[in-house]
Amino acid sequence: MRLAKPAIGLALGSGSARGWSHIGIIRVLEEAGIVPDIVCGTSIGALVGAAYADDQLARLEQWVRSLTWQNVMGLLDFTINGGLIHGEKLFAFLRSHVGDKDIASLPKAFGAVATELITGREVWLREGSVIDAVRASAALPGLFKPSQLNDRLLVDGALVNPVPVSLCRAMGADLVIAVDLNSDLIGRHFDLSDAPEEAAPEAPSAFATVLDKLPLKLGRLKSGPSASTAMPSIFDVLSISLNIMQVRITRSRLAGEPADVLIRPRLADFALMDYHRAAHAIEEGERAARHALHEIGDLLGRR
Question: Is the Cβ–Cβ distance between 166 and 258 less than 8 Å?
Fold first, then answer.
């Protein structure tokens, strides 16, 4: 009797700009003949996962590799209602360049995780517009305006489920490969002394002074006592606190809902909005995925 091939689930975690490493991970898995049947994502993981589930990963990769700091800033539309960034400009761009479909029509099974703002409940998005689901899953509180979907206010799924192993299992995955982008963030300190400077375009005048203080370039980390001598700004504190929250929640969720294989790229030097550093992130994703191939092969062989 021939055993059925196990359904492989891929759980792509949250992590802002670190999420471009998902692209490298997927590339290495496919080159090794490991093709997921189910793709789930939280936040940036939902964006990359949706592109992959729609066979649009090559198109997304081409775009993110071309991003400059100026491109990133140009996609931000500022507001003071619900967050600092509205998000309409970015997601309109994604609709026109990557495309938008109904989740049910995607070639691969796909799901995204968001958080209901009023109740704090975890919300699984498995139907309707792909872009609407991604937008809800990636609405980082305080930075992006909450998404209004089906009469609910939804924010970033990382608040409740940063690495959506549980959703993969619920959708029928027998073996789950998960990606945790935040495992090396705690215990280091922000430091910009070695960070390359890039000229940013002029911001709208009403937000110019705010942007100067935003943690858009923060997140490059340095160990040691000398890195902690200066008092951090309020934006430093918020950014570091988000990192701590994501790491703690991730550890808790993975302890109760472990993946079969956990891939952990090392991307602690990435800032919150370092989306223009895609080449580095993708390369690190490839390295981390290659390191896990033997373990995945062993598991598939036993199944």
Answer: no
Q: How far apart are CA 212 and CA 219, in angstroms?
A: 15
Residue 87: the pLDDT is 57
Residues 165-183: tens digit of each pLDDT: 999 999 999 999 999 998 8
By annotation, the residues acting in catalysis are 43, 156
Four-residue CA torsion sign, 136, 142, 148, 153: positive
CA separation for the pair 125, 123 (Å, rounded): 6
> Look-up: residue for tokens 């929640």?
249
Q: Are residues 274 and 196 in contact, defined by beta-carbon separation less than 8 angstroms?
A: no
* pLDDT, tens only, 45-81: 999 999 999 999 999 999 999 988 888 877 675 655 5
pTM for the model: 0.84
Helix (H, G, I), strand (E, B) or coil at 177: strand
Type and span of the H or E element at 295: helix 278-302
SS3 of residue 170 by DSSP: helix
Q: Give residue 36's Cα distance to chain centre.
A: 18
Per-residue tokens: 82: 């619900």
Task: Please say whether the beta carbons of 168 and 10 come within 8 A.
Answer: yes
Q: Which two tokens stand for residue 256?
A: 């109760």
